[in-house]
């Protein structure tokens, strides 16, 4: 195995996301105001800084990028962001050194980024996460559940062609309310019942 193949074998894609008790990442109109429902006076990062140490770059969908790019505050990512979009033509001028548009299917994108020396990614955005899951390209899930039922909205997970099994690694509770569980992909899968 050559060094490129060896590095690609060590490739890792991590989902780090919050959801409601009923499995939604945004409300029916895309609202995420509920993410601030638990006060965080000490500025607990809830594993975000550790995640940034674990990755080379971020791959996110266009909707997530649009939201973050228009958010009133400093740019939150210390790593390069690759925006997965077939329609976006350019990123805002003030973000050209921080974000880049990419197109294509997840596996081809990972292969191309691997040739640039990037192998470990934070995958963000509901549609993007689902597309990587459909191609069995998610190695780890770090999901923080907030104690709220939204009753509808944008689901974290979508329909799958096959079952993917994950193994529970750990669970932590932040701010006495937020439950973050970490799961790693297992090689054993079970067929969907039809």
Record the SSE blueprint.
Layout: H1 3-9, E1 12-20, E2 24-26, H2 48-54, E3 57-61, H3 62-69, E4 81-84, E5 99-102, H4 106-114, E6 120-124, H5 126-134, E7 140-146, E8 154-155, E9 166-174, E10 178-185
Parallel strand pairs: 1-6, 1-7, 3-4, 3-6, 4-5
Antiparallel strand pairs: 2-8, 7-10, 9-10
Your description of this structure?
This protein has one domain: Dihydrofolate Reductase, subunit A. It is α/β, with parallel strands linked by helices. The model is unreliable at 1-5 (pLDDT under 50). It contains 5 helices and 10 strands; from the N terminus they run H-E-E-H-E-H-E-E-H-E-H-E-E-E-E.
CATH C-level category: Alpha Beta
| Helix-strand category | alpha/beta
Q: At the fourth CATH level, what is the homologous superfamily?
A: Dihydrofolate Reductase, subunit A
What order do the strands of the largest sheet run in, or round the barrel if closed? 5-4-3-6-1-7-10-9
Arithmetic mean pLDDT: 91
Distance between the termini: 40 Å
CATH topology: Dihydrofolate Reductase, subunit A
Tally of helical runs: 5
